[in-house]
Amino acid sequence: MKFTLLVFTFATCLLLSAQSEAASLSGTVTLNDKPVESVIVYLESVEAVQSTPKREPVIIEQRNLTFSPNVIPVVQGTTIKFVNSDNVHHGIFSPSPGAGKLSLGTDGHGEVRSVRLDTLGEVVLLCNVHLEMEARVLVVKDPYFAVTAVDGRYLVSDIPPGAYLLRVWRKHKQALAEPLELSLARDLTLDLRLKPLESVF
Fold it and tell me: Which CATH number does 2-48+146-194 carry?
């Protein structure tokens, strides 16, 4: 099945199937008919009973004076490991309330620092040595998410059948007010056409 969603405001959509196997959600995110990279597409379960999501550690590397990856979704309770692959010192910190005034101090080449993120929402990561460095971590409650590639494509796989809220996050942009309601039980292709939004900052 394939649908195109015009995200001027999120509408309500109900997609039903008699199948009960794990499903996938895929498509392309565009803005003004052009693909948009580094958009997070994620699902939130609206059902009370949900299996415990995996919380494997996630690695964010510091390489060539950048965070890699610099946009990443993680499940609530995930531990982030920061690996310094540069031959210079870095000083990771976050001004985001959800990160608890994170400050990991100065780390040299090969050093690893860790932090667990338990609060839902966006976490901005910065370096107090190299002001141009920035990354965004989006902490979500369920492990059903994807980040769009350079061609705007995304794929969320291994989704248990059930009811979900589909949300979209974009860096430096306001969150879309209303999610899309889905009852998902089989593979679905859903293209998302985004409306231009005012920058938060």
Answer: 2.60.40.10
Write the pLDDT tens digit of every residue in 138-164. Answer: 999 999 999 999 999 999 999 998 899
What is the spatial distance between Cα 101 and Cα 96, in angstroms, rounded to a whole number? 7
Distance CA 110, CA 129 (A): 17
Among 112, 119, 83, residue whose Cα is nearest residue 98: 119
The Cα 182–Cα 162 span in angstroms is 8
Instruction: Select 58-140's CATH number: 2.170.150.40, 3.30.460.10, 2.60.40.420, 2.40.50.100.
Output: 2.60.40.420
Backbone phi, then psi, for 49, in 5-degree steps? Answer: -95, 120
Strand partners, 80: 58, 115
Q: What are phi and psi of 86, to 5 degrees?
A: -90, 160
Q: Global pTM?
A: 0.83
